[in-house]
Design a protein that fits this description.
alpha+beta; 5-stranded antiparallel sheet; 2 helices; about 20% helix
Length: about 110
């Protein structure tokens, strides 16, 4: 089984390990993982594999004081039985957003220096 983690990217793992990987991830402070995708462009190659291309995909990791947004291109390839063979997420842009309270506090403190 393939496990997708935006930080670790793509890892091959067994089904039994997947719950533990998710537990570690959320115990480390991840509150939410969000994926926003556009309409896919679907195609089929000569081997019968179905390819879904999302020209714009946004993955967002939400932590208590931080939000990390990754924008890129998502491609998923299925075999003829519709099982995922592989997928890739090519990142074009990474944005970090600190909570507004912390940003205001930094601005306030910088006014004294």
């Amino acid at each position: 089984m393939l496990y997708f983690d935006p930080v670790l990217l793509l890892t091959e793992t067994t089904v039994e390990v997947l719950p533990r990987l998710c537990q570690i991830k959320y115990a480390s402070g991840t509150l939410e993982e969000l994926l926003y995708i556009d309409m896919p462009r679907e195609s089929q190659n000569t081997s019968g594999q179905i390819i879904l291309d999302y020209t714009k995909a946004i993955q967002e990791s939400v932590f208590e004081q931080l939000r990390v947004v990754r924008e890129g291109h998502l491609r998923i390839v299925f075999n003829p039985d519709l099982k995922v063979l592989w997928f890739s997420f090519l990142i074009f842009l990474i944005l970090f957003q600190i909570s507004t309270f912390e940003a205001k506090a930094r601005s306030f403190l910088s006014s004294f220096y």
